[in-house]
Write a structure and sequence with these properties.
Strand content: 35-45%
CATH architecture of the largest domain: Beta Barrel
Order of helices and strands: HHHEEEEEEEEE
Structural class: mainly beta
Number of helices: 3
Number of domains: 2
Distance between the termini: 92 Å
CATH topology of the largest domain: Lipocalin
Helix content: 10-25%
Number of strands: 9
Length: 188
């Protein structure tokens, strides 16, 4: 071992060397940051009635079918919306993914129904299921299977839609898509 006093390096070099060892084997030439004062221990928390490993209760059928409450952002007049579709989430399908209609959609409210006219040959007439929520379930306008669409107007100028499609030719297959949409203009 080297005797630093005898080598002429002195206490300053030894201090710098030890600081580098304690700082993860790196030597810094700047000032050493001040030490962080120790923090106080948080007060003990009283045990809860529910153990931390317990799972939350499962929703009942009534809760799963309850309609949401809150503001109804459904359009009041006929309007045009621009929709974007997400990737196909397939379940039980042997074929490839599908790309359903998307883009401009004409939405026409009429009391408890809402007509959804996209680029398919016939429009879909949806029923109101809650504030700002509409649903269609039945045959596609192309009559190539069944479709379920649930539209939620999440704001005055925004919407989301979940669409699931079961083709006639493959009844064990479901194609699911999530949409977003943005208001473009009212249609007189």
């Amino acid at each position: 071992m080297t005797d630093f006093r005898a080598s002429g390096l002195g206490r300053a070099a030894l201090s710098l060397l030890l600081a580098g060892v304690f700082a993860g084997c790196t030597v810094t030439t700047g000032a050493v940051p001040p030490a962080t004062p120790p923090t106080e221990k948080p007060p003990p928390v009283a045990p809860s009635a529910v153990p931390p490993t317990a799972l939350p209760p499962r929703p009942t059928v009534a809760a799963a079918t309850a309609t949401p409450s809150g503001p109804d952002y459904s359009p009041k007049v006929q309007s045009v919306w621009d929709t974007k579709v997400g990737a196909d989430q397939m379940r039980g399908c042997s074929g490839g993914s599908l790309l359903p209609a998307y883009g401009l959609v004409q939405v026409t409210p009429d009391g408890e129904t809402l007509t959804w006219k996209n680029t398919e040959p016939k429009p879909y007439v949806m029923k109101k299921i809650g504030p700002g929520q509409w649903r269609y379930e039945g045959p596609t306008s192309l009559d190539d299977g069944t479709v379920k669409m649930v539209v939620t107007f999440t704001g005055e100028k925004t919407l989301t839609m979940s669409r699931s499609f079961i083709p006639k030719g493959e009844p064990g297959c479901t194609h699911m898509h999530e949409y977003t949409g943005e208001y473009k203009w009212d249609r007189p």
